[in-house]
Amino acid sequence: MAKALDFEGLGEQIMKIAERQKAEETEAYLVSNKVLTVRLVNNSVFEAKGVHDIGVGIRVLREGGLGFSSTADFTSKSLKKAVKAALDASKTRKLPFKYSFPSPAKPPKVRGVYDTKLAKLPSDKAVDLAYQMVEESLAYNRKIADNAGVFNLVVYHTLVMNTHGLKAKDDGTFFEASLTATAKRGARSSEGAEATAGRSLKELKPKEIGRKAAEMAVSGLKAQPLKEGTYPIILDPEPSAGINGYISFLCSPMIAKLYYPLFLDKLRKKVGSEELTVVDDPLMPKGIGSAPIDEEGIPSQKIAIMEKGVLKNFVYDTFYGALEKKPPTASGARVAFAVGVSSFPGKNYNGEPIPIPRNPYIVPGDWKREEIIGDTKNGLLVKRFHYTRLTNPTRGDFTSVLRMGLYSVKKGEVAGALKKSRLIDNLLGILKNVDAVSDTLTVAGAWGGYAHTPIIRTKAHVAPV
Amino acid sequence: MQEDLALLAIDYATKLGAEYVDARLEAHYNELVTAANGKVERAVINQKRGIGIRTLVKGAWGFQSITNLTKAGIKEATNIAFKVAKASSRHVAKPVKLAPAKACRDSYATEVKVDLENIAFEDKLKQFLKWEKRLHTSKNVVRGLIEYTGIKIAKLFVNSEGANIKFVNTLTWATLKADAKKGALTQSYEQTVGHAGGYEIFDKQDTGKVAVETGRKAASLLKAKAAKMEKDATVVLEPNYVALLVHEIVGHPSEADRVLGREAAWAGTTWWGGKIGEKIGSKYCTVYDDPTVPKTFGFYRYDDEGVKAKRKVLIEKGVLKGHMQSRETAAEFGVKPNAGMRAITFEYIPLIRMSNTFFADGDWRYEEMLEETKQGYLVISMKHPSIDDQRYNWTISAQEGYEIKNGELASHLRDVQLTSTAPKFFKSIDAASKKGEIHPLPGCGKGDPMQALYVGNGGPYLRGVATILGAK
């Protein structure tokens, strides 16, 4: 795109404008977020679309009040207006506790979060790589009739500056790639999917994604109906990442307080089985959510969320930390919650920081995947969740459609595919019934949410659809 | 609006060789406030302006958006949109064709009595805190929450066929939520006040009163009985619950891109592909999608392809009649485009979206529907959905319910969750009340990257059959 903007200069300009408008403290979070999306449908490249979002989120403190505004317009007039809007917002948002933006601290080095090759990947090459998923799937088996998927390539640069002299940069790259294949034989049809994400071009294996999606689709053509019941269920990486996603979401004090209170009164209480330990580690090399700093500029750190099933910690940004008198855990993330506001993969300046784990995962156990399957007499292997919801966020009622990749496990072996079914249970029950965790982390997820995850076995009620 | 910049994108892309090009130049102003338990948790003002340029080159789509609104920026973005379309065209099995559409020229705006920017942000925050306080109707209400959003969008749509449409849209809404607790039992209730229009909605719908009602309802659920599992129960669904139901099991599967399998990798496909003209429901099963209803969340006169909006008949007296179309899908179906395309901002390529999707009114009075139900359940107000990928099997929880015994409301129920399949439920509808409602649904998700859009959904009271799931 056009000439790179001088983020430091803009940051200084915002500080000066805010000082003139009598802000006591100011923070500027400057973002350049470039996304290229290649969407694949009906065995073709359907569209290639790009966005280059550049903007700034401004927080100010004045007379005990905190305000926020954002703008993508860097003209002096617009920056003044944005600072004024933040100051206006601060007038009635008086904080009943002492609050200040973070002080500067030296961030650690985190390896493998920026890849020049990925950042500079030409758009036609990106289109070709995305299409390789389709080609490989079609080549796998003649029964593959259709493929749809996506390749998102993200390159971001951020700079956070504040009144205390904090000036911290975060540059990163990542990709998300997924494919859903449909196999057909006569009137029967079956789907299969594979999805992964990574921080470098080296990690992108489009052919492997295409083959795995096709394999799952073809295996489902012989699916048999499931018998309703409560089964031991082995959750492969994607559904396991889904469970991990709920755990991390629920240990945000903001989310727990305002929206999903399932863990709210459960700190230091047992919410899962002995097998379940969860950490947030944004220092992990090549970690999908890794970065040297959080989005307030605080050096990243590893946090224990759950230890042997006991909820150990909620995670904190500076605001919720001050509110609940806890030290921040470098867990400030900027998420645009508002409807009608863009929220692309990558970094976002439209939202204030909220506390949320940044690279959470279930800590691997000591089981091999084959051992977990071998140890299951009459159970289910689940490869994909679809439309997973906490239908009652206070009780933990939990449901997911097992749309594809559902298999029966009999006498320690994967016995065959099963037709689409629905899991209906309770999340706390599912966590408490975890009795095996595999020894390897894999990157898995779907539709904008990826994580490192092992395979887990638990128990749940499943009914045919 | 800098119309010359939008026209520059059209001219430049045409010169590069694009078969078709459109541009959406937009300025956005958004306010967001979250207040909980007497404190303002978040107070945000976002402003953004930019352009999204969509090109069709050798039958393939390319798109680029930017916020750098200079001539150089526009040219660079147009170049990228052209280049990625050209790169995509090498892997296109069936080149895109667009159904013809009249190139309209118009300028219109949502009716606004009180402009969002005419009330000081500070005054708004004070008012939200007041309403939040009113949620605390008893000591059992342990948490109150109000989330306010105000959106103002000025947009200009131009295309290479000569369309030129200006639209200023304003949406204002607040969701009020109360959590009540007694012992280990927690119950919640929430209601949304909103419309396409200005700040006047909060007086019009007496938001203070809605807050009190929300708090009382949450507290009352503490005394309600937990719903128990019952297969194939008679259910009378209240319009707010119908809103989420119609959204999930009629609205989404009516998107033609979904019918064509283009959402297969995301939300899924539909069970009724190829069934147009077939009977899938009872005579009370009529559903429209209608962007022309003023004041609703789905209001517009032209979609984001510049096609003039009109009411779409999706299901009529139980017969599947049609889908929501883009110009591209209309060409594939061999029908006229019906203005189904929208994008949340200039940064996104438009997709086929619902506008206001609702069940048509019936000929019953609500009271009659109850009186003629010997044994059943009244199911009130939407909570959370989980729907299968073909929009066939659905599970949707409700905020509250009542048993119906001999035509009268009996025990109050909490933890109500229904499940059924779409065709089974459509065929079971044996009564629809006279006066339907369209409710604001602020967060309909679709696309990759995800676009969370505001739509309207609703209908009248409906009576049908579904399974009540007991609490797990």
Low-pLDDT windows of residues of chain B: none
Q: Which segments of chain A are poorly predicted (pLDDT under 50) over 5 or more consecutive residues? A: none
**Structural class assignment of chain A:** alpha+beta
Main sheet makeup of chain A: 9 strands, mixed
Computed structural class of chain B: alpha+beta
Number of E strands of chain A: 23
Largest sheet of chain B: 7 strands, mixed
How would you classify the quaternary structure?
A: heterodimer
Extended strand count of chain B: 23
Sheet-strand content of chain A, in percent, reads 35-45%
Instruction: Please bin the fraction of helical residues of chain A.
Output: 10-25%
Q: Return the average pLDDT of chain B rounded to an integer.
A: 96
Terminal Cα separation of chain A, in Å?
49 Å
Average pLDDT taken over every residue of chain A: 94
Q: Over all CA atoms, what is the radius of gyration of chain A?
A: 23 Å
Considering residues with a beta carbon less than 8 A from a beta carbon on another chain, report the largest interface and each chain's count.
A-B, 103 and 98 residues
What is the terminal separation of chain B in angstroms? 55 Å
Q: How many individual domains of chain B?
A: 2
Number of helices of chain A: 10
